[in-house]
TrEMBL record, chain A:
Keywords: Membrane, Transmembrane, Transmembrane helix. This is DUF2178 domain-containing protein. The chain crosses the membrane at residues 35-55, 76-94, 106-126.
TrEMBL record, chain B:
InterPro entries: Cro/C1-type_HTH, Lambda_DNA-bd_dom_sf. Pfam families: HTH_3. It comes from Methanothrix harundinacea. This is Putative transcriptional regulator. One of its GO terms (molecular function) is DNA binding. Keywords: DNA-binding.
Length: 133, 68
């Protein structure tokens, strides 16, 4: 089973990012902190290598998505958006009432985590349940 | 919603993967369609019916409770 051209391009880009990170670290472009370029580029490179490999192993020649999976993705994002707004409203009310006060950084971190993980959880749940619209 | 996809697919000796490939969807989508757990778009319903050499109303059977 041959690998899709799209995956090959992504893997090639990932290897380039990884090698660029390693090269920049050794070239000491950032003399004060040698690992800085590596720290930024290596995760991107690894993601670009691992994600297409996993998709190839999981889906093979099958389409990566179709109308059912697109519906599930959309519905997952919609539910996640509602939950996130609900939590933001609750945080606002609690802060206004003096029940709980959070720093801006903590609030943003919480919102990012809730928005990201709730979307993944809703999508996982919907894909196991069904997707009748 | 009930479907006759499994029966019509068997008549033509098609696997779920074969049918999925013919209508350009994932195999799990065919599985959900066969179980009646996914209401496809009109476009997908048409593609499935054509792939099975049939018509939409012969493949997908709506009952009274499905319409409410």
């Amino acid at each position: 089973m041959g690998m899709k051209q799209k995956y090959k391009v992504q893997i090639a880009a990932g290897i380039s990012f990884l090698l660029a990170g390693i090269a920049l670290a050794f070239l000491e472009v950032w003399p004060e902190e040698h690992l800085t370029p590596f720290c930024y580029l290596a995760p991107v490179g690894l993601a670009l290598i691992i994600i297409p490999l996993v998709r190839h192993w999981r889906y093979g020649d099958e389409p990566q998505k179709d109308e059912r999976t697109s519906n599930i993705l959309t519905r997952g994002f919609v539910y996640s958006w509602h939950l996130t707004v609900g939590i933001m409203v609750a945080l606002f009310v609690m802060d206004d009432a003096g029940v709980m006060t959070m720093t801006v950084q903590n609030t943003l971190a919480l919102i990012i985590l809730v928005a990201t993980f709730s979307a993944l959880i809703f999508q996982g749940y919907l894909s196991r349940k069904e997707a009748s619209l | 919603m009930k479907t006759r996809i499994k029966e019509l697919r068997a008549r033509q000796n098609l696997t779920q993967a074969d049918l999925a490939s013919m209508v350009e969807v994932r195999r799990e989508t065919i599985l959900f369609l066969e179980k009646g757990k996914y209401n496809p778009s009109l476009k997908l319903a048409h593609k499935v019916a054509v792939a099975l050499g049939s018509t939409i109303d012969e493949v997908f059977i709506f009952e009274e409770e499905d319409l409410h």
